[in-house]
Amino acid sequence: MNITDIKIRRTYQDTRLRALVSLTIDGELAVHDIKVIEGPERLFVAMPSRRDDNGVFRDITHPITTAARRLIEDSILEAYHEHISHQQEQPESSPDA
User: Fold this and answer.
1) pTM attached to this predicted model
2) Which end of the chain has the least Cβ crowding within 10 Å, N or C?
3) What CATH code is carried by the domain that includes residue 13?
4) Is residue 74 part of a domain?
């Protein structure tokens, strides 16, 4: 499995939800609505899910192996940190410009 693209679609600052992410695998499969969440001890990645008839959230898609989960989470968190660093480096535009 090769992760060929990661897009940070949207970031948030005032909630536990820090970002919505899309991931492309092998240039052929896209997974949308992956979440970067601020946990009590660290950031983590939550796969797309939906609530079933019993009110329980179930993943729509998820990695099967520990190695695949680690690859996906590490890649997404690295891309997220790069995205945030890049945003912080950008000078704010002046209202007079």
Assistant:
1) 0.86
2) C
3) 3.30.1120.40
4) yes
